[in-house]
Design goal:
Elements lengths: L1 H13 L3 H4 E10 L4 E13 L3 E4 H10 L2 H19 L9 E5 L2 H4 L4 H11 L7 E6 H7 L1 H13 L2 E7 L5 H5 L4 E4 L1 H5 L5 H16 L3 E5 L4 H10 L3 E3 L9 H8 L4 H4 L4 E3 L15 E3 L4 E4 L6 E8 L5 E4 L9 E9 L9 E5 L2 E6 L7 E7 L6 E6 L8 E8 L4 E6 L2 E6 L8 E6 L7 E12 L5 H12 L12
Parallel strand pairs: 2-4, 4-5, 5-6, 6-7, 7-8, 8-9
Antiparallel strand pairs: 1-2, 1-9, 2-3, 10-24, 11-14, 12-13, 13-24, 14-23, 15-20, 15-24, 16-17, 16-23, 17-18, 18-19, 20-21, 21-22
Helix pairs in contact: 4-6
């Protein structure tokens, strides 16, 4: 039966009937922590007469035997680029597409020129596609495929490793990919034994340590989502999030769920006699007995008034889901009552360490500190002048998980920047007004905003200047 089926696949492909029966469908790649749509994965299906729908896994091995996959690569690329052009000036204008290309297609002499010409024809930027190459292909095709992939990367294309951890980890040493799409079998096997769970967890950790985005494939239920989120996988795809569908269905179904749209808005805590954010999504819990509210940096703004105390006393604990993005910007006004060396106003613990913002250190400076438990050189500090007791100061700390650059801003001005700051993976707890080591902070906190990306210096400066225009403003004039 299988031989007869393969024969029919070959015959219809050679007669050209395949091009009238193929469909390129789309399914969502989801940001696991929020279930928002992050990218689009392309899925090939063949509406085969009298047999129903054939998946790519079923017909592609046959097409590869007769080099028809080379033509198929051109077809997929052309279709995707045309789709990108049709979605210009819509909600999906800048959304990224994940496109699988076979090694045979990529090893053609003109393949890179074909890719570049197609993207130029439809005015698609190199960074708008993730070109996905099977991990197994690197073992089979060796040096030539590594060279082709590296050339694409050098030209500015994005290259992802598809079905990662299905064969060998050697490919990670050779190819500086920024995206790993995990083999779906890794996740499927976790339901049978703990060994598979440990393997999955450590593969994700390895990818994150190498500064790669992680896409978990084959997600089918909520339990898998929770497990993947706790291990640090950022993205997911599978039937749980949606079956492959055509262009119009995808657009209507997911246009209101874009990650890049939803997450431009910060999570804001105005502390108007409550510990809930403006949208009512997150509520903090006070651990103490003396919490009070007072006036912020201008009349009409509220502030939390922390009384101080011993370690862990009189702090606010926010839900860890507030810090769902790996990139972030944390901005706030702070007014210390007194100099307290090393006491944190914002303290976040992670799987691999912690992040702290300390208005005053033992050296008399303000610290933005990231501690990485995985490294011998564990301290990563950005430093500026301290927040003066009795005066309001506007502090912003940003971290970009793509560039691994952290920045510190004081009163609207950038006062420090550091490369190679570590990505700690998965926030565990978020404390305001204290930490696990020092006496709790005494003073005021107002206008807390948590962005889920690294805000630019221009935006931070504009925000500070906007505060200065408020009636009854009591903050600084902007000097460092």
């Amino acid at each position: 039966m299988q031989i007869e089926e393969e024969k029919r696949i070959k015959e219809r492909a050679f007669r050209g009937e395949i091009w009238h029966e193929l469909r390129l469908l789309y399914r969502p790649v989801v940001y696991i922590q929020t279930s928002d749509i992050y990218a689009v994965e392309t899925v090939l299906q063949w509406d085969f007469p009298e047999k129903g729908v054939f998946s790519e896994e079923k017909f592609m091995p046959v097409l590869k035997q007769y080099s028809i996959d080379i033509q198929l690569g051109r077809y997929v690329l052309e279709t995707v680029c045309a789709q990108k052009q049709r979605w210009r000036n819509t909600e999906f204008d800048k959304i990224e597409f994940y496109v699988r290309l076979t090694s045979r297609f990529l090893l053609q002499k003109d393949s890179i020129a074909v890719i570049a010409d197609c993207m130029e024809k439809y005015h698609v930027g190199y960074g708008e596609l993730q070109l996905c190459i099977e991990e197994n292909d690197f073992g089979e095709k060796g040096e030539k495929l590594y060279a082709a992939a590296q050339k694409l990367l050098d030209m500015g294309f994005k290259v992802a490793i598809n079905n990662f951890a299905s064969s060998s980890l050697y490919v990670l040493q050779r190819l500086p990919s920024q995206l790993l799409k995990l083999d779906a079998k890794l996740l499927a096997k976790t339901q049978y034994n703990k060994k598979s769970v440990y393997i999955l967890r450590n593969v994700i950790s390895l990818g994150r340590d190498l500064e790669c985005g992680i896409v978990a494939q084959g997600i089918e239920n909520t339990a898998q989502v929770k497990m993947l989120a706790s291990y640090g996988a950022q993205f997911g795809v599978g039937d749980f999030y949606g079956m492959p569908c055509d262009e119009s269905t995808f657009f209507e179904r997911y246009r209101d769920r874009l990650f890049l749209t939803h997450n431009l808005r910060p999570t804001c805590f105005q502390f108007a006699r409550q510990l809930t954010d403006e949208k009512g999504e997150y509520t903090g819990v006070f651990t103490g007995e003396e919490m009070a509210y007072t006036t912020g940096v201008y009349e009409g703004q509220s502030a939390l008034c922390f009384p101080g105390g011993k370690v862990g006393e009189n702090c606010v604990r926010l839900p860890r889901e507030v810090m769902y993005s790996d990139s972030y910007s944390i901005c706030f006004w702070v007014k210390p009552d007194r100099a307290q060396p090393w006491s944190s106003i914002v303290y976040i613990t992670y799987m691999d360490g912690f992040m702290s913002l300390m208005p005053n250190s033992g050296h008399g400076d303000l610290f933005f500190r990231i501690k990485d438990d995985r490294e011998p050189d564990e301290w990563h500090d950005l430093i500026c002048r301290p927040a003066v007791p009795g005066q309001w100061s506007y502090i912003c700390a940003t971290f970009d998980v793509v560039t691994h650059i952290g920045k510190l801003y004081f009163n609207g001005l950038m006062v420090g920047s550091m490369e190679n700051m570590p990505d700690l993976k998965v926030a565990d707890q978020i404390l305001l007004g204290g930490d696990e080591y020092q006496d709790s902070f005494a003073g005021r906190l107002a206008g807390l905003e948590i962005y889920h990306y690294a805000v630019s210096a221009e935006v931070i400066e504009e925000k500070f200047k906007a505060y200065q225009q408020m009636p009854s403003y009591e903050g600084p004039d902007g000097r460092k």
